[in-house]
# Entry
Amino acid sequence: MSEHLIWMDLDTGVDDTAALCCAASLENRGLITIAGASAVCGNTTREHAFANTRNVLGMLGKEHIPVYPGAEKPLLAELHTAAHVHGENGLGNVVLPESPAPAESIMAWDALYRCAVEAEGRLELILTGPHTNAAIAFKKYPDLKKYLKRILIMGGAEVGGNITPAAEFNIYADPEAAEVVFKSGVHVVMCGLDVTEKGILYPEEIREIEQGETVGCRLFRDTTQHCRAWYKSMGIGGLHIHDVNPVLYTVYPELYTAEEAGVFVETRGYITRGKTVSDRDTDVKFGVKNATVVLDVDRVRFKDLFIELLQETIK
Ligand code: BDR
Ligand code: CA
# Structure
């Protein structure tokens, strides 16, 4: 059995797709086992996220991994997708072949809880979308915290934001859910914008990936076209692959620089709603270090590993 047993909860999404490709290759390397996946609304609707997750895993030869449907809307907030970045269907409007696997109908939170109990504390939960599914699981099953080893997220930021000046998209999309996760009692590894924007891919690196003939390279080439045009229009000279970070951190933490801190979520502020407030730099601490705040990455090793993993997916 591999050292890491993971569950991926995603709003699949272009960079969520890249994260799934990396996870598939890491599983093929024998370094992780993907116990299950679940879909949440965020970048796109739950319906698209569910289909995209199933279809991407199917293309990667991983159709045996069960994918469960999750929340169709945030706990309290209204649903605002990110079609301007990820396209209407979440994958830059690229239509993928349908997964041959029968669709699961058990809800994400029930399946996650069952898996965590069976894994007896070994399960690592990776969240690359809003935290709605995880929050529902914690509310419905108060003892879930006993069964999760840790939670790794792409979300938040120590400094700044991307959807507002103060907030990152995944947290802003459902701040009440993120609050439940950070208060859950399970340690959170936060790969926020501080680090995910440093792991940028430059045009020559993107071209190198595009030359690959594997499923991962082809998926990357096709699904990123739409968001690459958006990045360009924003004056960003490359591509952020945010969601890849918690997956790579799980196995290769030595690529990253991180610090322990207390982190909680602003759910009320009228210009700071969805901000992850970390006590790293203040005199008055929260009194608990519930998170590892990931702050920096060795960009060259990160992009080399990312390219390798895409090139290692099946043909
Ligand atoms: C996050 O929001 C989504 O657009 C991406 O998939 C990533 O999870 C970045 O803020
Ligand atoms: Ca995502």
